């Protein structure tokens, strides 16, 4: 199920943010990602927080759709 969520989120995430998402999935720290991409650690953290919120919204929508079908 996690792979399915990851795959769907990848499709919803703009390419510039997708790079951050993928590097985090590889286990890099926010600091390491920032250094690699030439952005601040705080920017990385904000993007990851945005992605987390999107994932929660998507999951909530999925549950609501299942409940309606249910």
Description:
With 70 residues, this protein is mainly alpha-helical. The relative contact order is 0.14. The protein is elongated, with a radius of gyration of 14 Å. The longest helix is centred in the C-terminal third of the chain and has 29 residues, at 41-69. The chain is built from four helices and no strands.
What's the alpha carbon Rg, rounded to whole Å?
Answer: 14 Å
What is the overall shape?
A: elongated
Main sheet properties: none
| Beta-strand segment tally | 0
List SSEs in N-to-C order. Answer: HHHH
Strand content: under 5%
Return the structural class: mainly alpha
Q: Low-confidence parts, pLDDT < 50 over ≥5 residues?
A: none
Separation of the first and last Cα atoms: 19 Å
Number of helical segments?
4
Structure described in brief:
This protein has about 70 residues and is an all-alpha fold. The chain has helices spanning about 1-10, 15-25, 30-35, 40-70. About 85% of the residues lie in helices and about 0% in strands.
How would you describe this structure in keywords?
single chain, mainly alpha, about 70 residues, elongated
